[in-house]
């Protein structure tokens, strides 16, 4: 709130002179009303916008917020273990289908990071879920030998995130377009279950102009994908982005400013890349902009929280929130990445064995080329999984 200093700057010495006459008292009242109104409006705009002002703490939690951050500032000081936690194999695990998809649905993951986070955050992605990508790249503004980070020609900081994403996809187009079928952008505090991403993508052709993620409603007609939850582009989408969008400033923003995910969403729409539907056959989401606790616990945030206004598809709380084959969660601290790795890939209830559902049929993309939005509906052909 305004201090005495600010009052002095804003209203000269009104606070002191205000008592002298009625008209001065009115000015003082007007000043206070103005300040309060301004503050409230600022607060409104801050809460209404996820990416532009996300460093402002959100206090709309109804229950608990200890491990449930809503802005990147909350994780600024978190870091993981120096030593790796180690690894071991499971000889009885049947990974036949996962291995098949590793070959058939190749995923390149690129991690948005920055020099301050190489050690604190990015390194823990590399030691946990990053290893499961067919190819893993770290995009930064500086090199890092241990991380093998790529130095992109962009400045650092929030105001350059869009520029960094644009340069990252241009770099991938030039150097790695044939190394994968799908291209995932994630943050260094995103956790991804790569096997489930491949399963979701399996029916789609990488030659369709498509991208998937956690879809939000505003700013872009067909919706746009949350940056923090991560989003994945088909090879054709990357090609259109680099060959058409990134070369034409009437289609895609040419400077580095703006909200990264919104600019990407506008750009994808302009180059006719369809914003796909990533829900499973039960209508449960797979990409999440927060940690599981946030989505799972009913009434965890109040309904004025921006997420409820932004989310494209109607979304349940409780166990129906999230697919049994969920793909991503955001604001995951480095330590929690090891915890999730343990819970998802190691901890097993004895005697319960899950057999994977049959793979869905492939969608014939040639029949419905380009912008037909139906193409992006969730596959209901095998009616996969998730039956409760
Ligand atoms: C492993 O799983 C696949 C697919 O479910 C199945 O066909 C195969 O028989 C299983 N192998 C073993 C050794 O159980
Ligand atoms: C950029 O895109 C606009 C709209 O599609 C088009 O009219 C224009 O010719 C394009 N410019 C270039 C240089 O390709
Ligand atoms: C996108 O589709 C529209 C409508 O079919 C078309 O007019 C436009 O030229 C296309 N734009 C690009 C960049 O392919
Ligand atoms: C999948 O579910 C839909 C709607 O519930 C149903 O119409 C369809 O027959 C099912 N398909 C298969 C292959 O079970």
UniProtKB/TrEMBL annotation:
<comment type="function">
    <text>Glycosyltransferase that generates the core 1 O-glycan Gal-beta1-3GalNAc-alpha1-Ser/Thr (T antigen), which is a precursor for many extended O-glycans in glycoproteins.</text>
</comment>
<dbReference type="Pfam" id="PF02434">
    <property type="entry name" value="Fringe"/>
</dbReference>
<feature type="region of interest" description="Disordered">
    <location>
        <begin position="363"/>
        <end position="388"/>
    </location>
</feature>
<keyword id="KW-0325">Glycoprotein</keyword>
<keyword id="KW-0472">Membrane</keyword>
<keyword id="KW-0479">Metal-binding</keyword>
<comment type="similarity">
    <text>Belongs to the glycosyltransferase 31 family. Beta3-Gal-T subfamily.</text>
</comment>
<dbReference type="GO" id="GO:0016020">
    <property type="term" value="C:membrane"/>
</dbReference>
<keyword id="KW-1133">Transmembrane helix</keyword>
<feature type="transmembrane region" description="Helical">
    <location>
        <begin position="28"/>
        <end position="48"/>
    </location>
</feature>
<keyword id="KW-0735">Signal-anchor</keyword>
<keyword id="KW-0808">Transferase</keyword>
<keyword id="KW-0547">Nucleotide-binding</keyword>
<feature type="domain" description="Fringe-like glycosyltransferase">
    <location>
        <begin position="110"/>
        <end position="273"/>
    </location>
</feature>
<dbReference type="GO" id="GO:0000166">
    <property type="term" value="F:nucleotide binding"/>
</dbReference>
<keyword id="KW-0464">Manganese</keyword>
<comment type="subunit">
    <text>Homodimer; disulfide-linked.</text>
</comment>
<dbReference type="GO" id="GO:0030145">
    <property type="term" value="F:manganese ion binding"/>
</dbReference>
<keyword id="KW-0812">Transmembrane</keyword>
<keyword id="KW-1015">Disulfide bond</keyword>
<dbReference type="GO" id="GO:0016263">
    <property type="term" value="F:glycoprotein-N-acetylgalactosamine 3-beta-galactosyltransferase activity"/>
</dbReference>
<keyword id="KW-0328">Glycosyltransferase</keyword>
<dbReference type="InterPro" id="IPR026050">
    <property type="entry name" value="C1GALT1/C1GALT1_chp1"/>
</dbReference>
<comment type="pathway">
    <text>Protein modification; protein glycosylation.</text>
</comment>
<dbReference type="InterPro" id="IPR003378">
    <property type="entry name" value="Fringe-like_glycosylTrfase"/>
</dbReference>
<protein>
    <recommendedName>
        <fullName>Glycoprotein-N-acetylgalactosamine 3-beta-galactosyltransferase 1</fullName>
        <ecNumber>2.4.1.122</ecNumber>
    </recommendedName>
</protein>
<feature type="compositionally biased region" description="Basic and acidic residues">
    <location>
        <begin position="363"/>
        <end position="372"/>
    </location>
</feature>
């Amino acid at each position: 709130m305004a201090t005495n200093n600010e009052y002095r700057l804003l209203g000269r010495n009104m606070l002191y002179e205000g008592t002298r006459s009625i008209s001065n008292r009115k000015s003082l009242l007007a000043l206070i009303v103005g300040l309060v109104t301004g503050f409230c409006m600022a607060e409104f705009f801050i809460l209404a916008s996820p990416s532009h002002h996300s460093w402002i703490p959100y206090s709309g939690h109804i229950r608990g917020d200890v491990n449930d951050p809503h802005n990147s500032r909350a994780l600024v000081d978190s870091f993981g273990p120096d030593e790796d936690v180690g690894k071991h194999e499971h000889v009885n695990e049947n990974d036949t289908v996962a291995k098949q998809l590793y070959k058939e649905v190749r995923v390149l993951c690129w991690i948005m990071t920055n020099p301050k986070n190489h050690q604190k955050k990015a390194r823990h992605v590399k030691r946990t879920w990053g290893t499961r990508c067919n190819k893993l790249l770290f995009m930064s503004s500086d090199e890092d030998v241990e991380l093998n980070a790529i130095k992109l020609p962009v400045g650092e900081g929030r105001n350059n995130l869009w520029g960094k994403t644009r340069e990252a996809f241009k770099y991938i187009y030039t150097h790695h377009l044939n190394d994968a079928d799908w291209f995932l952008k994630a943050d260094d505090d995103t956790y991804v279950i790569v096997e489930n991403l491949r399963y979701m993508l399996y029916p789609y052709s990488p030659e369709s102009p498509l991208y998937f993620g956690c879809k939000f409603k505003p700013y872009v007609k067909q919706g746009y994908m949350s940056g923090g939850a991560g989003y994945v582009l088909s090879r054709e989408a990357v090609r259109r982005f680099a060959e058409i969008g990134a070369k034409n400033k009437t289609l895609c923003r040419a400077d580095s400013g703006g909200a990264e995910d919104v600019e990407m969403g506008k750009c994808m729409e302009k180059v006719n890349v369809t914003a796909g539907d990533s829900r499973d056959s039960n209508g449960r989401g797979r990409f999440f902009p927060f940690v599981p606790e946030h989505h799972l616990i009913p009434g965890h945030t109040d309904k004025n929280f921006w997420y409820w206004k932004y989310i494209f598809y109607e979304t349940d709380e409780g166990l129906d929130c999230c697919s049994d084959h969920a793909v991503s969660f955001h604001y995951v601290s480095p330590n929690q990445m090891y915890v999730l790795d343990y819970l998802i890939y190691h901890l097993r209830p004895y005697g319960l064995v899950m057999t994977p559902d049959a793979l869905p049929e492939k969608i014939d993309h040639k029949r419905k080329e380009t912008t037909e939005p139906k193409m992006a509906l969730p596959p209901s052909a095998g009616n996969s999984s998730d039956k409760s």
